[in-house]
Design a protein that fits this description.
With 523 residues, this protein is of the alpha/beta class. The protein has 18 helices and 15 strands.
């Protein structure tokens, strides 16, 4: 299978009734688990209630694998066949699993995930009136729900409107086929994934009502569309059931489609989350150094692109870095989720309590910083507080200067000044208004006593329009201010003070924005 599908990043291994969870399966090269690529996610499901999950997880941890372990206690319990438990036994088993590995450090850093797994044909089953006849909540461990990290399901064809609901005449639209997973995710508050999926070709030879797809091209296209829709709608993990009707050994067209999807996942671009780009820049300015930060490390799942193509972690080379300062700033940021350093880890949702790190240690010279895997956190624009800058870059400054409301505030600020000999309770504008009123009154007295009253009145402020006053700023010596020269000088100082901006901000653009903001500013 690995030779047929190179670069596979997810493998599912099933232990049937009576198999238990043998820890030796991780090290015995004759076993399937030992052959799984070290960086691949492994979905391990079992049917037995009295298993030693702690020993199994410890054996996995000892291998130093970098992929996630997704453990499913009681695969498809709703089937009620082959030793499946009663609902009460199912709940007791989840309590046992949670007590053994629910607080495992690998679960805190996201490498160990606990999951439920149901068959969607069972969940989607409806009666003649279109009402669902089965309730997934029967097999939801409500009492241990805080230990459930993922909701998984096995998808197989089902159309209640077809003559044979399990042999519909067409390939179901992905949105209709997988909408139930989005619904289950919303109801449980957990992300979702697909543990098993396959589809036989729709032909009469396959007991379907028509020869719709004799060469498999429609089925291959269906796989591509299903995968694309799932990825765009939050699917966290996906594995194909390559047995029985899903055996693609002789179905080369569908094989090619799966190899395409695997290659697509393996070569997905690594785009660092914008919030971490901000952090990366602040670290570089505070502690300059070559290769200070690493994006594509393999020791932690955070470094893999998520369904949005975003990488939510960086590693920092701590040589010459004050780690206490860095961690203090990191932990204050709303987007921060996890850090790992020198065998110790801490998480935001655990109150930043320091615990022993159970995963592959990044080493004393590395500091792993991860943010919350949510789009709002990834795009959080707030600074991390590692530099003395106020967090404003050139683009933000230009946008502010072009904002009419900001320009009005700039014009108003000089007149709001108080202190410096200005009478208590008055501002600069209040004093000037009082002076104008006083000058007008005195001027009127002088005009009445003058031989030429008209000449005196012509000199009074009342004879000049307010617009003329506002439009004639001076340079302090009575001459007019050259706003172009002033704006250009300020722009030069601002450009020199700002950190390098890869997007680029021209001095001419900033000069023009400053000129507009200063226009009308009183002298």
């Amino acid at each position: 299978m690995l030779a047929t599908y190179p670069r596979t990043s997810c493998v599912r291994i099933f232990f049937g009734p009576g198999d238990g969870l043998p820890p030796t399966a991780w090290s015995d090269q004759r076993q399937r688990l030992a052959q799984v690529p070290t960086d691949a996610d492994v979905i391990v499901s079992h049917k037995d209630p009295e298993v030693d999950a702690a020993a199994f997880v410890a054996a996995w941890q000892a291998t130093g694998r970098t992929g996630r372990l997704i453990l499913v206690p009681h695969h498809e319990p709703e089937q009620q066949a082959g030793g499946d438990p009663t609902p009460a036994a199912f709940r007791r088993s989840w309590t046992r699993t949670r007590s053994q590995v629910g607080d495992h450090p690998a679960r805190h850093d996201g490498r160990l995930r606990l999951a439920v797994c149901w068959t969607l044909q069972w969940v989607r089953r409806v009666d003649a009136a279109g009402r669902r006849v089965n309730d997934w909540r029967t097999w939801w461990p409500e009492h241990e729900s805080d230990a459930v990290d993922l909701v998984l399901a096995d998808w197989y064809p089902y159309d209640p409107k077809a003559r044979n609901p399990f042999r519909p005449a067409g390939y179901e639209d992905p949105a209709a086929a997988l909408a139930i997973m989005v619904e289950l995710s919303a109801a449980t508050g957990r992300p979702w994934g697909i543990a098993e999926i396959n589809h036989p070709r729709i032909t009469r030879a396959g007991d379907f009502p028509a020869d719709l797809d004799p060469d498999g091209s429609r089925c291959a296209d269906w796989y591509r569309r299903m995968h694309a829709w799932a990825k765009a709608n939050g699917c966290q993990v996906w594995s194909h059931y390559h047995r029985d009707e899903g055996d693609l050994t002789d179905r080369t067209v569908e094989q090619h489609a799966l190899r395409e999807l695997i290659a697509q996942e393996a070569t997905a671009p690594r785009r660092l989350a914008p919030a971490l780009e901000t952090l990366r820049g602040e670290i570089a300015r505070r502690w300059p150094g070559a290769d200070r930060t690493v994006v594509d490390a393999t020791h932690h799942v955070d470094h893999r692109p998520n369904t949005r193509g975003s990488v939510d972690a960086i590693d920092v080379n701590v040589t010459g870095v004050d780690t206490d300062v860095l961690l203090t700033a990191f932990q204050r940021h709303p987007a921060a989720a996890l850090w790992i350093h020198a065998g110790t880890a801490a998480r935001a949702d655990d109150g930043w309590t320091r615990r022993a790190y159970a995963g592959t240690d990044p080493g004393a010279g590395r500091l792993h910083l991860g943010i919350r895997p949510a789009e709002a956190a990834e795009r959080d624009p707030r600074p991390w507080g590692l530099t003395e800058e106020n967090g404003m870059d050139a683009k933000q400054l230009l946008a502010l200067l072009n904002d009419p409301a900001v320009a009005r505030q700039l014009r108003a600020l000089p007149w709001q000044y108080i202190g410096g000999g200005i009478p208590r309770g008055m501002s600069t504008l209040g004093v000037l208004n009082e002076l104008v009123v006083t000058v007008r009154a005195i001027g009127e007295v002088v005009a009445k006593q003058s031989a030429d009253p008209a000449a005196v009145r012509a000199l009074l402020p009342a004879q000049r329009a307010d617009a003329e006053v506002m439009a004639a700023p001076t340079n302090g010596s009575g001459g007019a201010v050259d706003l172009d020269a002033l704006a250009d000088a300020v722009a030069a100082r601002v450009i020199a003070a700002l950190p390098p901006d890869p997007a680029g901000l021209s001095r001419a653009d900033l000069t023009a924005a400053l000129r507009d903001a200063l226009t009308g500013l009183p002298g």
